[in-house]
Inverse folding.
C-alpha cells in the first residue's frame, strides 16, 4: 500500500470510526469518494462528501446497495432519459386497463375509514413478478411482491386496517425503513422533486436484500398505476449496470400507461 493511501486510511480510522470500517469492508466506498471529488455536482440528486458520510455511518445491509448509489451518482440525466426505452422493456396499457389497475382492491376498503381508503387511493401501487435464474434454470417459483408508495406510518395504517393486503394479496413493505432511507438518499428527479418513498425504489432495495444473491439472471415485471418517474428510471438502470459489472443480467419489463404521470392525471384518463 502506498504512503498516501495508508495515510488517508489512517485519517479515516481516527476521525470517522464506523466510516473507516465500512470502507475496509466495502472498498467501493473509497471509489465513491473519489468519484465525488472528480465529478462536478450539476444536479440536486448528486452526492457530496457529507451525503456519503451519512450513508456509510448508517451501514447499508449489502455492498450492492452502495454500488447502486455510486452508479446512480455517475449516471447523467441525459443518458437516463435516452436509454430508458432502450434498456427497459415498456408495455403500454390502454385507459380501460388503467382503470382496472387503479381500482384494483378498492372493494377491500368497504366499511373502512375514508382516511385509510384515501391514503390507499392516493398512493401508487406496484405489482411485481420476480423470476430468478441460474443459467437457464429457474431457481424457485416466480416471486410475487406488491408495493405501496408513501411513508411507513401511513402504509402501516393501511395494512393494519386491511390485513388481507399482506396476508392474501402479497403486499409487502421494506425490510428496514432506516436502512432504506440511506438507499433513497438524494432521491430527486430531474426537476429536483423529492422521490424518497417511490414503489420502484422500495422494490429494488428489497430485491437486493432478498433475491439478488439467488441467481445470475433475473426477469422482473412491474405493473404500475403510475408511469415510472425519472428518478426511478435512474435507479432501475443503475441496478442493471451494477449487475452487468458483476456478470449478471437483469431484464426489467414495465407495464403502465405512458401518460399516467400523477394520480390526478390517472383520474382524468379513466373518466
Amino acid at each position: 500500500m502506498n504512503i498516501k493511501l495508508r495515510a488517508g486510511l489512517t485519517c479515516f480510522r481516527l476521525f470517522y470510526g464506523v466510516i473507516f470500517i465500512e470502507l475496509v469492508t466495502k472498498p467501493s466506498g473509497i471509489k465513491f469518494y473519489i468519484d465525488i471529488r472528480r465529478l462536478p455536482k450539476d444536479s440536486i440528486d448528486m452526492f457530496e462528501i457529507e451525503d456519503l458520510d451519512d450513508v456509510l455511518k448508517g451501514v447499508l445491509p449489502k455492498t450492492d446497495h452502495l454500488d447502486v448509489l455510486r452508479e446512480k451518482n455517475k449516471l447523467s440525466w441525459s443518458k437516463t432519459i435516452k436509454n430508458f426505452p432502450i434498456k427497459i422493456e415498456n408495455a403500454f396499457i390502454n385507459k380501460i386497463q388503467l382503470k382496472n389497475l387503479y381500482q384494483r382492491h378498492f372493494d377491500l376498503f368497504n366499511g373502512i375509514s375514508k382516511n385509510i381508503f384515501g391514503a390507499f387511493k392516493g398512493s401508487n401501487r406496484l405489482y411485481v413478478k420476480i423470476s430468478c435464474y441460474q443459467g437457464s434454470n429457474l431457481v424457485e417459483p416466480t416471486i410475487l411482491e406488491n408495493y405501496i408508495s408513501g411513508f411507513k406510518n401511513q402504509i402501516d395504517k393501511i395494512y393494519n386496517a386491511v390485513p388481507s393486503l399482506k396476508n392474501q394479496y402479497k403486499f409487502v413493505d421494506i425490510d428496514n425503513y432506516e436502512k432504506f432511507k440511506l438507499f433513497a438518499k438524494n432521491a430527486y428527479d430531474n426537476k429536483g422533486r423529492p422521490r424518497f418513498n417511490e414503489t420502484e425504489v422500495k422494490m429494488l432495495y428489497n430485491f437486493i436484500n432478498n433475491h439478488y444473491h439467488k441467481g445470475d439472471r433475473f426477469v422482473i415485471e412491474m405493473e404500475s398505476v403510475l408511469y415510472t418517474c425519472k428518478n426511478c428510471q435512474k435507479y432501475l438502470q443503475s441496478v442493471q449496470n451494477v449487475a452487468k459489472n458483476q456478470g449478471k443480467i437483469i431484464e426489467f419489463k414495465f407495464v403502465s400507461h405512458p401518460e399516467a404521470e400523477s394520480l390526478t392525471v390517472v383520474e382524468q384518463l379513466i373518466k
